[in-house]
Amino acid sequence: MIERLAAVLARHATVDGTTATAQPRTYLLRCSVATEPLPVVHRPAVCFVAQGAKETMLGEHAYRYEPPQFLVVSAELPITGQILRAAPEQPYLCLRLDLDAATLAAVIQDAGQAPAVRDAVQRGLAVSTAGPELLDAVTRLAALLDAPAAQQRFLAPLAEREILYRLLLGEQGERLRQIASADSKLARINRAIAWIKSHYADTLRVDALAALASMSPSSFHEHFRTVTAMSPLQYQKQLRLQEARRLMLAQALDAATAGFKVGYESPSQFSREYARRFGLPPKREIERVREQWRAMPEFV
């Protein structure tokens, strides 16, 4: 079954990078070489690996996965991903299904399942092994890429719902139920994350974020760290540095301008924190990236 899934993905992901499909929330990922660690902000999703191996770092926590394993991401997280096993003749191949809270809630309701039965906050990343039934559903969703557009429009939502249903029955079911529950602690932390993401250049006030999440400041800080493996201020810093890096690469901004645009008032502080995050000062790191990774996409 894994070989069937890999064959379908190889037919439709013909170049390295992320390929959008006609099916909502479904993306194909391909990489023909092992990579250095690449920083990205990962959206809530399930990533099914069909070929190769990858490691994702969240803070100091490492998550390695390969067939028939899959990665579950339950919050928008600044992570570092590294393709560990890939080659031109046998590239890394992955199907990513983005998680939609409304679709999850509808599946839970239509299946007659109970909502989240407990509200213990969990880390925003997890790795599990896909059983035959789940793999079969994922393979059938991918195989619809070979079907006419009319069949895809009708059958892809059904295949997505089956995948979500089988995930809800498995060991990650409680995590998905918390995504679907608007009042779960995870959903409330996600509201705070969404605010930070859209206001990353602004001054961050933890008490205001706690109020947005309907939590006390101490409870909010604890739960936020559990989900993201970092404090709210560290999370904001990660977003700022990644956005500054993107601006320098995509718009050729100098370090001082990029740092100012993302909220840094001190160029020296920006340079220090950038070097701490990416291993080199901004100018040298961007030059290295342009030389070595100009053609390499960000795999999310």
Describe this structure in words.
48% of the residues lie in helices and 20% in strands. By secondary structure, the protein is of the alpha+beta class. The chain has 3 domains: 2-180, Jelly Rolls, CATH 2.60.120.280; 185-233, Arc Repressor Mutant, subunit A; 240-292, Arc Repressor Mutant, subunit A, CATH 1.10.10. It has a 6-stranded antiparallel β-sheet. Helix 1 packs parallel to helix 3, helix 2 (101-110) packs across helix 5 (173-180) and helix 3 runs antiparallel to helix 4 (149-169). Pfam families: AraC_N, HTH_18. Residues 190-288 form the HTH araC/xylS-type domain. Keywords: Transcription, Transcription regulation. InterPro entries: Homeodomain-like_sf, HTH_AraC, Tscrpt_reg_HTH_AraC_N.
Task: Give keywords.
300 residues, alpha+beta, Jelly Rolls, Arc Repressor Mutant, subunit A, 3 domains, 4-stranded antiparallel β-sheet, 20% strand, globular, transcription, AraC family transcriptional regulator
SSE run: HEEEEEEEEEHEHHHHHHHHHH
Rg, Å, rounded = 20 Å
Distance between the termini: 23 Å
Categorize the overall geometry: globular
Instruction: Classify the beta-strand content into a percent band.
Output: 15-25%
How much is the average pLDDT? 93
Structural class: alpha+beta
Number of strands: 10
Total individual domains: 3
Q: Biggest sheet, open or closed, and with what strands and sense?
A: 6 strands, antiparallel
- What is the level 1 CATH name of the largest domain? Mainly Beta
